[in-house]
Amino acid sequence: MTELTLPAPGKLNLFLHIIGQRPDGYHNLQTVFQFIDLCDSLTFNLTAEDRIVITPSMNGIEIKDNLIYKAAVLLKPYRKSQQGVSVSIVKRLPMGGGIGGGSSDAATTLLALNTLWQCELSLDELARLGASLGADIPIFIFGHAAFAEGIGEKLTKVAPKAPYYLLLKPNCSVPTVQIFTDKHLTRDTPAIRISHALKLGGHNDCLEVVRRLYPEVDEAFLWLTQFGDVKLTGTGACLFLAFDLIDDAERVRASAPDNWQTWVCRGCNTSPTHDVLNQWIAQQPI
Ligand SMILES: C[C@@](CO)(OP(=O)(O)O)[C@H](O)COP(=O)(O)OP(=O)(O)OC[C@H]1O[C@@H](n2ccc(N)nc2=O)[C@H](O)[C@@H]1O
Ligand SMILES: Nc1ncnc2c1ncn2[C@@H]1O[C@H](COP(=O)(O)OP(=O)(O)O)[C@@H](O)[C@H]1O
What we know:
Blueprint (H helix, E strand, L loop, with lengths): L2 E19 L5 E21 L4 E4 L11 H9 L8 E7 L10 H16 L6 H9 L5 H6 L3 E4 L4 E4 L6 E6 L6 H5 L13 H7 L6 H7 L1 H11 L5 E2 L6 E5 L2 H9 L6 E8 L3 H12 L3
Bound molecules: 4-diphosphocytidyl-2-C-methyl-D-erythritol 2-phosphate and adenosine-5'-diphosphate (ADP).
4-diphosphocytidyl-2-C-methyl-D-erythritol 2-phosphate (SUD) binds next to strand 1, strand 2 and helix 5.
Keywords: ATP-binding, Isoprene biosynthesis, Kinase, Nucleotide-binding, Transferase
EC number: 2.7.1.148
GO biological process, one term: isopentenyl diphosphate biosynthetic process, methylerythritol 4-phosphate pathway
């Protein structure tokens, strides 16, 4: 039986500028995406029966709402056979954290099934399919750290410094839509050039709104500020802080109050999904 296990990494928005709003309500962004080596793990097994099965079930998510299921359904018309798939998942990425776990699971599913079902779609075609499920999916299909524009689909490769990060999730989840519909959100940050972004970075326009709506984020932000330049990823709730040395990151982590989930991870400019998939493809008999 054909089995493929792939990681689905989280992402950080090193900064996130909102430069306008489209007539359909979506916001035009400028952001730099970088992956982290904190990953979900997805194992795919093809099945004779034409069904999509996901185990274990995820807290509060019906199978038809699971982005893994939705991604598999999107690819079905391109299959070369009528085989189904069984997906087992080890979930490590917190939900509603702004690190894109659901989007990454969906992108990993598209990449895995494109290979296992021999759909032969290009990365651009997969990214377009993925974008119909979520604005964050194309970056995980692209597979390289990127300066992103539009709603996150216009991607230009970049290679920012890849430090260690202390990642902290306050005791709350932030729905993306709540932040994007807040009337206090700054939506008119002037557009910058990529060279400016790489040299000077930027800020996150969602930070002030998220701190005001979620006192848990505000409290964690103020605590972390004593150790450096704290950033919010996406629309939150996760905060992160960069360190050159892993020991320094671990020291701050060890002093964090127990009610916050914390991780020390490393920034990656290439996606671990693509690294592992390419190795797997290279090992298959011709
Ligand atoms: C803000 C970002 C930055 O990376 O990340 P997260 O904090 O969600 O991880 C993303 O653009 C989020 O992408 P994603 O989480 O896939 O969002 P989607 O499901 O496409 O959209 C959820 C809702 O957010 C709003 N939305 C999303 C993206 C965008 N550029 N403008 C928007 O206004 C829309 O109201 C949409 O209905
Ligand atoms: N496989 C999945 N993993 C995580 N979340 C999922 C998944 N499928 C659907 N979802 C839904 O997507 C929402 C956003 O998830 P996620 O991408 O992890 O957060 P964020 O967009 O804040 O980074 C979750 O709250 C959940 O309801």
